[in-house]
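Re: the request from the purification team.
They wanted to know what the chain is likely to look like in 3D before they choose a buffer screen. I agreed to run a prediction and write the result into the notebook, where they can find it.
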Amino acid sequence: MQLIPNIDTLQELSTVPIKGEGAQQARVVAALRRHWKDMVPQPLVFAVPNGGSRNKLEAMGMKAQGVTAGIHDLILMMPGEKTIMLEMKDTKGVVSSVQKQIHVQVIDLGYTSIIAYSADMVLTVADDAHKAHLYTDNYAQHVALGSFYADVRVAMDNFAESTLAMNTDEVEVNETIVDDIEASYNELLAMRDDVTLEDPALQNSFDELLSVYRSSLYKLKRLS
């Protein structure tokens, strides 16, 4: 039985009584708990209640008890020491600087960090892109792939915020994940000048995206 349910198991958004970002998070939790209810050992999905308004005294008390700014919204714990940290955003949500710092720290510790803008994206990313990361037997590759999949999404989000669209042809899937990443990098590199020609300010964001690819390819090829 696969660990992550298909997107067609998600509750219809219009029937969720919660509105905004919380609605997508509720859909994820419900789908996972339904899918996992008969598994042994049973995986866990739980929320980290970091939100809400507090006065200064309450905030100090919560911080002393371990509440940490920037921590992900959901934690998924699955058999085989597989853990996913999930940050949910709505379509207009912005990843704060503190959340980015926590995101990097989680990756450095060898865990998977996902920033998602819909319940569909959560299930798709967790089941597809992160499958190669979660099930690899090579620890260096495990960390490198985890860093790539999470960091490249942040870099893409930053670039997408600076431009309206980026037209690319589909990249043919290669036999290995490393080849696939390298093919994507080469295609992005080839289109760099065309994409950023009209607005030089986009070059920095695009170069950050390319840097994520180069760094991850180096780790996968030299350190694995």
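For the purification team: Helices lie at 21-36, 56-64, 97-108, 119-127, 129-135, 139-162, 177-196, 202-223.
Please add any questions underneath this entry.
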